[in-house]
Automatic annotation (TrEMBL):
Protein name: C-type lectin domain-containing protein
C-type lectin domain location: 48-162, 157-277
UniProt entry keywords in alphabetical sequence: Signal
Statement: the UniProt record of this protein carries the keyword Hydrolase: no
Organism: Oreochromis niloticus (Nile tilapia)
UniProt key word Signal: yes
Leader peptide range in chain numbering: 1-39
One Pfam family in the UniProt entry: Lectin_C
PANTHER family per UniProt: C-TYPE LECTIN DOMAIN FAMILY 20 MEMBER A-RELATED (PTHR45784)
Length: 295
């Protein structure tokens, strides 16, 4: 075919029940074969496995990593449909490889990761935080001027910029959403402030002293529901209505309810069946391009 032609790759699906000798349960094995014989094709074999054993999310993750590649990543509705059809019962709750990592914080400035632990002991979370209320809190504000609290990024608060050229901290007393605050700081100063050192924390405390602010944005944030267990990112979701909701702030892992194939956040300590996959870890772009490969 010429350079400008696009070919639709045939997806051949084989579902078979395979008795795995080393596993207690029956394993439904699904092979997703992408054929087309093109050199530009991604690795062309991916197996999805339904594991008929009850485990909590972390146990399931370990099991998948030991026996297969990892917990499953769902890239699109086709894969979601395939998984759904593999669950033997209509009313199964099955773990997917998606979780809401409450400790995956990053600083806006320099893109450096935030480390929980001894190097940041001067940074204290307020009591019970981070709690990701309603599965909707992915930005961090200082509360009561000293302690950290995860808040909805769309909330409007005053914010703290850092100006690298004047090595100063600037409290901006206009209420803005976190990303508006970030834009402001990046335009007029350097960025929303980080708090990486004890000295930085005490300067910030001084800057805030007497301001009376209750919440003030700093440069700490995280990506919701990313990455998946296998470290890939996929923007496809299939949440049930009103989900995810992080009910009672205990729900940080994702399960699929087999009948409609919809997703729910759930307590990670529930014991559920789960889906694993075998195959190379692929990035989202590669997977998306499967249906229309240019050659
Ligand atoms: C902050 O830094 C910018 C350059 O990034 C500079 O033009 C500006 O004067 C500084 N503002 C303050 C308040 O220090
Ligand atoms: C903050 O305060 C310390 C003294 O506690 C000082 O040495 C430092 O230069 C100040 N500025 C910054 C940007 O941390
Ligand atoms: C805050 O400022 C007041 C004076 O305005 C001072 O008495 C107090 O010690 C300051 N607090 C801190 C934590 O620096
Ligand atoms: C995931 O990626 C991060 C860096 O982005 C790396 O530190 C980590 O080891 C990776 N985890 C796995 C399971 O590959
Ligand atoms: C899963 O169970 C193991 C013990 O078998 C426990 O150590 C772990 O914390 C549990 N994980 C969750 C998320 O509850």
């Amino acid at each position: 075919m010429g350079d400008n032609n696009y070919a639709t790759i045939i997806i051949m699906v084989t579902i078979s029940v395979v008795q795995m000798p080393r596993m207690e349960g029956t394993c439904l094995l699904l092979l997703l074969l992408l054929s087309g014989g093109l050199s530009t094709l991604p690795p062309n074999l991916k197996e999805h496995h339904f594991v008929n054993q009850l485990m909590n999310w972390t146990e399931a993750q370990s099991y998948c990593r030991e026996h297969f590649t990892d917990l499953v990543t769902v890239y699109n509705s086709d894969i979601n449909q395939l998984l759904r059809s593999m669950a033997p019962n209509l009313e199964d709750w099955v773990w997917l490889g998606l979780y809401n990592d409450r400790y995956s914080w990053k600083w806006s400035m320099e893109g450096k990761h935030f480390y929980v632990g001894s190097t940041h002991e001067f940074l204290i979370w307020a009591n019970g935080q981070p709690d990701c209320v309603n599965a909707n809190e992915y930005c961090v504000a200082l509360q009561g001027q000293t302690q950290m609290d995860d808040r909805p990024c769309g909330d409007s608060y005053p914010f703290l910029c850092y100006n690298a050229s004047s090595t100063s901290y600037i409290l901006v007393m206009e209420s803005r959403s976190w990303s508006e605050a970030q834009s402001y700081c990046r335009t007029y100063h350097t960025d929303l402030t980080s708090i990486r050192r004890k000295e930085e924390k005490s300067n910030i405390t001084l800057t805030l002293n007497g301001s009376g602010v209750q919440y003030v944005w700093i440069g700490l944030y995280r990506d919701p529901w990313a990455p998946w267990s296998d470290n890939t990112t996929s923007t496809f979701t299939n949440w049930a209505p009103s989900e995810p909701n992080n009910k009672n702030s205990f729900e940080y892992c994702v399960s699929m309810y087999s009948m409609p194939g919809k997703w729910y956040d759930a307590r990670c300590n529930y014991k559920l069946n789960f889906f694993c996959f075998t195959g190379e870890v692929q990035n989202t772009n590669t997977v998306r391009s499967c249906h229309h490969v240019k050659h």
